[in-house]
Amino acid sequence: MTTGSAESNHEIIAGVELAGKQAKDAIQGELSLRVLGAEVSVVLHAGVTEDLQTELRRAWSRCLDLPGESMPRPEKIPTAALAHSGERPFRATVSSAVGAAIVTGRTFKEFASELTSAVTLAGITAGRGDLVMLHAAALADRKTGRSVALVGRSGMGKTTATRRLGAALGYVTDETVAVDGSDVIVPYAKPLSVIVEDLAAPKHQIGPDELGLLVAPAKPTLASVVLLDRNPDASVPTVTALGHAEAIIELAPHTSSLSDVHQPLRRLCEILDATGGAVRVTYREAGDLAVLLPALLERPAISKTWTSVLGEGTQPPEQHGCDDGDRPALLKRAELVDAVEIPLADGDGSELIVMTGEGVVRLSGVGPAIWHALATPCDIDGLAMRIAPRIGLPTGYESHLLSSVEELQAHGLLIAA
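The chain above was modelled as a monomer; its predicted structure follows.
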C-alpha cells in the first residue's frame, strides 16, 4: 500500500502527558473522520490557518464523521513535539483507537500529502485482521451497488481512471479497497492524490466534490477484481481471465496486513469465486475502461473448485522409509499462515498456494506432491517412496527431487525435523 511515507515521517506517540495550556494554544482545529470504518481524529496545530483548515475540510468532506458520534481523543504527546518549527511549520496529530502520530510538512502541499498517508495508515491499522485490504481504486454502479476494484502498482492509472469513470459511477476510493466478510466494501472516499507538477513533487490532495465525482451507495459490494496493465502501445483494450493461483500471486503484493486475516488465502479464494475470478485488463487510456466496465460489473459468481489444505490429516496413506530413527536429515513442513490447493485448468494435477511469514509462494510440478508426502517428517529416500504412487518416479529422478526440496527449503516451506 502506499503508506511507506506515513511510517517513515510520523512519530508514533504513547502515554506522555502534555502541558495543558501550551497544548491548547497549539491546537487550532480538528477533523473527525471515518476511515475504513474506523474513527480517526486529526488535530491541527500551529501553521494551519483557518483558510487552510477550510481547504482540508473541503478535501475530506466525504470522510467527515456524522455529528454527535463519539470520536477518539488525541493521545497525549510531548510539548516539545508540538513546538513550532521554521523548517516544518505545518503540524497535526492523527489519532485513532490504535495509536497516534505527528504529521509535519515544509509546505502545506507536502503537509496535506503526508496527512493523507497518515490518515490512511491509521485506518489500515485499525482494520488489520478484520478486512481484506487491496491497494486499489473502486467505483460502484449507483443503482445496484456492484463495484469494480482496479488493482495495480503506482503508474497503472488508478487515479486517472477514477477521475474519468467517476462521472458515471459512484466514487468509493482511489487508495484502499477494504472488503469485509460479506464482500461489502467499507467506503473510503478520501481526497484524490493527483500529480499536478513533476513526479518528485508532493501530490495535490483534491476532494471528490471538487472533481465532480458521483457519490457511491452506502454499502457497495465487490463485483469485479481487475488488475490494471496500462500499455501506451495497446491498440485495443483486452480482458484476460486469470486463474485463482495466478490472481493470488499478483494480488498479494497489493494487499495490506493480509497475513493478519484469518485463513487469508481461503478468504481471497472466496472473494475471487464471488466476483467470477480476477481479470487482467490491458489498456492505453482511461476511456478504454469505460467501454469494458459494464460487462465486468456483471460477471457472475463461479463455483468453488479449490480446497483449504492447512490442518489436513497428519498421516499420509503410506509411510515408506521413515521408520528408522537413525536416519539423518529428516524433513518436515514449516509452520504456515495458510494454504490452498487449486486444480489445474486442464484437470491434470493441482498447484498449491501457501503463505509463510515472508509472503505467498506458488507450488506446481512436484511441489504439491512433496508437500502432501510430508504430512509427517521423512528423509529424502522415504520422501521418494511416498510420492512415487502419486506422480511416478522417472529414471534419474534423484537430482530433480533434491533440487525441488532445496527450492522449497529456500522459500522456508520445508525445514529440518
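The two ends are 36 Å apart (CA to CA).
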